[in-house]
Amino acid sequence: MILATPKGDKKFASPFDSSLPIPRASQIGSFSYSRHRVELGDAAGIPAFMRAIRLICDTAAGFPIQLYRGYGPDRTPVNVGPQVDLLRSPGGREFNTAQIWSYAYCSMIRGGAYLMKVRDAKGRVNQLIPIDPRLVEPKWTDGQLNFGIRDKPTAKPTKTVGRETILYAAGILLNHPVIGVSAIEAFKHEIGTQLSRQEFEGRYLANDGFPGVVLRHPSNVTKDQRDELRDSFEARHAGASNAGRPAVLWGGWEMERLSMTMTDAQFIQSQHFGVQEIGRMFGIPPGLLNDPEDKSHHTIEQENIRFLQFALDPWMTRLEQAIANDPDIFPETDWTVEFDPARLLRTDIQTRFDAYRLARQGGWITANEIRATEGYKPIDNGDEILQTPVGGAPNVASPNSQGDQTA
Asked: Which pLDDT band holds residue 325 (cuts at 50, 70, 90)?
């Protein structure tokens, strides 16, 4: 797929092309202390890491988006208009909305989300298409943020565009107040350690669960003889598929296995610790990562609240403010963009309905607002606010009420 810039002066490579190599360490990673190169594909092979990424990106992408105008008590929701249409369907009919936002969040974790503005014939932004962050190089020069665009990840930027072309949401800010860094780069040493452990475990199991074999000979054999025996032994006995095959040695050779148990290797303990470390990286409660050693005994609701506060909210706030501050989408400054996480915090039906009843009797929510939250159509006279004395029953009812004050 080829996408054109608003002026059509040059073509972008496909923003979803992931078959090309990584251009620079700051977006994907570099060598860790364990001398393992940390790359996105390898890091995603760690189950806890992949689950953490999916929890953040897929969960946040599924939240409905709401726009408001004004501030404080004068703030009012906006449910119709071009901005609403744009943000509720940023990719038009060509791209699934959840995929657009999920890719944007994942790009932020990789350093920053870059959404190309596609305009209609009148110059209004009517689509936001995410670009592969490997194709964009942010630059802060002369007090302005510009973006170098490359045609493929390994090439140098071929053109420079500004914020009139790219909507930018920064990732983790460490080295610069505007340009983000990749979480994979920031945590490369721990991720590299886990990747090295995985590699060691794989080689250990490929060798039939034994760390190694020593072949001894009483005399000083030549190098060619040593190499010939070693190569022959590895060809016949290395790997799980060769487990149990008898070995035949002659000419004075003796075989000795080096002993190591799974307890000595501490594979299980290392895996548990790795899950906890991934949780610390992204602020995710260990229970949501299925940590078998989690003894917090929090309820699902408590886990979801912690997940929202410490894992999701920082990423959502960055993206919300980046969108609201874009002058091409919101020329006025009194707009607020919010992803609504109400579904994540949804309680059981009895607790929810008890809360509705108290809120209705407390006089700060209407029957129709409750019905809208539960997905029901409004009713006549359902917008009346009840007035309730402290500790008493409602003393003002809707005109058609027959004494039933519930929703």
From this structure: very high
